[in-house]
From TrEMBL:
Quaternary structure, from the entry: Component of the TIM23 complex.
PROSITE patterns in the record: FCP1
Membrane topology value: Single-pass membrane protein
CC per GO annotation: TIM23 mitochondrial import inner membrane translocase complex
Keywords on record: Mitochondrion, Protein transport, Transit peptide, Translocation, Transport
GO biological process: protein transport
Keyword GTP-binding: no
Protein's recorded name: Mitochondrial import inner membrane translocase subunit TIM50
Domain of life where this protein originates: Eukaryota
Amino acid sequence: MRQPQAIDHFKLASWTYEMATAYTRSAKVMSDTVKHFTHVRHKSSRASPAYLATSNTPSSKGNDSRRLLIILDLNGALVSKTGKSGMWVRPHYTEFLEYLFSQFEVGVWSSARQNTVSNMCQLFGNFKKQLLFTWSRENFGLSEDDYLKNIPTIKDLQLVWKSLEDNPDMPSYTAYNTILLDDSSSKAALQPFNSIAISEFNHKSAEKQLTGDNELLNVIAYLEKVKYEDNVSNFMKRNPYKKDLASDETTERDFESTHFRYSDAKQTLGDLRNTAGLTNDGVSRRRTLEKKRPGHRKYRKSKQASSKPVTPQS
Ligand SMILES: [Mg+2]
């Protein structure tokens, strides 16, 4: 009579372990795949079939002779407004502008009104005259009612492409060679794979005050990858922008932010770690409060000299 084989418990345990590991691995791959397709499907929901067909046309590395068009948002992306009087500009912006204007065609499209956009454009300094266009709320084709309300807007890149069509000096701009840089991904709902959605820049953010901000260096590193692609919508669909390209090391320059006062274009260098204590004009809030306290010698002094203008300082 045949003897039943003794169970090798060690082999059984190791086989069970291998099965469990393989199961976990495949579950993770499946979960990542589902996440990716959900993300792509969600992003594609408002895009036209023609646009989606373009974004599915495989991209290959071309030569660097053509210039991409980069369309910049302002508030939240490059600047943080301080009421109506001024703005703080994102750290590393000078390096970013030098890089952009040496490599690409650059335009501005903000959902703020023309006058505010014109004020915020002070940040471009001498590069301002190189801007291909400066678009504002007036360029969304909104009804008068919607223009006045604070309704969410979508930046339809078709409007930009059409407006540049008649310019004989311009190459043809399409989803193949245009990138929108915005802190709000919903703005790019119609051409979602042509958009780099960066984190919002707010000089009062507790996180920025703690870690500084090197997002613009990260964007430079990403654009270095994208710029040779002959269909950026396809490349960016497969390789969306991520915040892991710039160095992890925090430097002093990550905290350097420049305040612009609109009235006279005065620039004041500030430190994000201190901006919470600064008023909208770059004047120390603590000093201002001191002056307002009755009985304080600075209060008495300021009463005597109340007609004198306060000089902003960093
Ligand atoms: Mg914005």
